[in-house]
Amino acid sequence: MRLPRLVAALAVLLTSSPAQAGRPEFRCPARGGTAWRELRTEHFLVETDLSSGKARELARELEMMLGVVRHGLFRAPPPMPGTIRVLALRSTEEFDLFAPGRGDAFYARSRWGEPVIVLPGVFAEEQRIVIAHELTHHVLARAFARKPLWFSEGTATYMETVGSSGPRSTPTVGGVPQWRYRSVFPYHGGIGAVLVAKGRLETKQYGLAWALVHFLLNRQPREFGELQLRFARGQDPIIAWREVFPQWDPGARGGAELLDDEIGRYLARGKFAYRDVKLPQVTAATERDMSASEAHAARLSLPWGNRGKPFRLADLLAEADEALAEDPANVDALAIVAGARPERALAAARRAVQLRPGDTRAWMHLSERLPEDDAAGREDALRRAVEVAPESAMALNNLAWELLGSGRSGEALPLARKAMFLAPWDAATLDTLAGVHADLGQCDEALEVQRRAIDVLPDAASAENRRVLTERLAQFERQCRVVPAAAAP
Q1: CATH number assigned to the domain comprising residue 475
Q2: Kind of pairing, strands 84-89 and 115-120?
Q3: Residues 251, 257, 259, CA angle at the centre, nearest 5°?
Q4: Full-prediction pTM beyond 0.85?
Q5: Whole-angstrom Cα distance, residue 397 to residue 282?
Q6: Beta strands 37-40 and 286-289: pairing type?
Q7: Would residue 462 count as lying in a domain?
Q8: Residue 6 has what pLDDT?
């Protein structure tokens, strides 16, 4: 899949109401605004207008928190290739421009498919709890081939206590925050619906998922470990649960009620085990000044959520034009302007690759702007994108998708596999790999990966994206029923 969510995000930007202004005044460094800087650590790239001292402290805390999450979840954590980008804004008003709704921080995907954490200029307990939750999702995606919703959200919520500790305090896992406990106790049941939930949980169900994970870790650790091994191997979560906990099968009469009774007694007892997690050693971040064009690009690469309120399209285009005046090859600005001025888009994209031949985003943008009948041009642009950035999951994915469409699944397979390794949390990369497997007649692999693609769709995924992936799974199931029957004689 060639990331339709990004196209949808751009469409939202370009159809937002022009009637109300909703953005604070932004001044880039070239026009007297605050200087921007980039800091790199082992796993993070922080882009910010914070002072150097505050930015370095933030980078250190983020790297430390990821280490605590990894070691809090696993004795031997899986490797974490790639980089998590962070946009940290000193102005709360600026943060509100990007925030999709309520929240003190959030985790999103940029226009180029990369994971991005967006923060206001403070990293207090509220922000740390959110980031601990989202980093847990990020780590779980690399360890488990299949994850039911209750396990994913329950574990992420369980790990929030990592963020409750101050930056210099010893973090703990397994504690019981009073506000979380009060959300589920007195306990009124409802775990059956949580066990089979798909897509998203209701607000109260997050607390139930947390209580279930807490209960299993403390009362059924051996069986819970076996269940996680099955998730890691890719077994269907419903079947895995039924085989490990047959007495609590939500599909059997009275099974969910028995589990509700156990969880209720566990919560009523009020005794919970927790453990400290040793703070990891963190190396110092490297720092460099960002150009004015890069500051614009950092902002323009993300959808402007504006807390769900309208903003003026003219403001967005004005910033994109300002970025292009400073750098005609600013690809994030070109992508914004292309939607509003499509007649100029292809020429601008061609100029961008001439000016920035080493920028994978420029080549990916060109591939998107080329005419539908220019398959050779798109393939060439995407090959150049992979050549200059062989670790770009989106470039790999899009080239694999292009090759799949032209009937060259054998060439696409290693590209799609590498894209999935780099971005196992991304439904589009999984969907592409599933399509490649299906085209090669590898039915078991296609079905397994496509089911995983549906599992990892985020809560905010559109109904259309979910429908497309579900229909493709049904297509693969039909295809895989026919192929063995035809081959049997």
Answers
A1: 1.25.40.10
A2: parallel
A3: 90
A4: yes
A5: 32
A6: antiparallel
A7: yes
A8: 34
Question: Tell me, what's the pLDDT at 294?
Answer: 93
- Shared-domain flag, residues 402 and 472: yes
3-state secondary structure of 115: strand
Q: Which residues span the domain enclosing 462?
A: 331-479
Task: Name the token pair of 384.
Answer: 């150049």
Question: What CA–CA distance (Å, rounded) separates 253 from 247?
Answer: 10
Cα–Cα dist 127/130, whole Å:
5
Please check whether residues 232 and 349 belong to one and the same domain. no
> What letters, b where the CB count within 10 A reaches 16 and e where it falls short, cover 35-48?
ebbbbebebbbbbb
- 27 found inside a domain: no
Alpha-carbon span 489 to 474, nearest angstrom:
25
Q: How far is CA 155 from the centre of its chain?
A: 16
406-444 confidence digits (pLDDT tens): 999 999 999 999 999 999 989 999 999 999 999 999 999
Residue type, 101: G
Report DSSP letters for 128-144, one per residue. Answer: HHHHHHHHHHHHHHHH-
- Determine which helix (DSSP H) or strand (DSSP E) holds 41, and give its type and residue range: none
State whether 152 and 256 are in the same domain: yes
Successive 10-residue mean pLDDT values, the chain, 489 residues: 40 36 66 92 95 94 92 88 91 85 82 88 87 93 92 95 74 86 92 91 93 95 96 93 96 94 93 81 91 92 75 82 91 88 90 93 94 94 96 95 95 96 92 96 94 84 87 91 47
Question: Reduced to 3 states, what is the DSSP secondary structure of residue 168?
Answer: coil
Bridge-based pairing of strands 275-276 and 172-173 is: antiparallel
Whether residues 101 and 187 share a domain: the answer is yes
Which spans in 26-116 are helix H?
52-73, 92-98
**470/400 Cα distance (integer angstroms):** 21
Taking the alpha carbons at both ends of the chain, their separation in whole angstroms is: 35
CB 298 within 8 A of CB 49: no
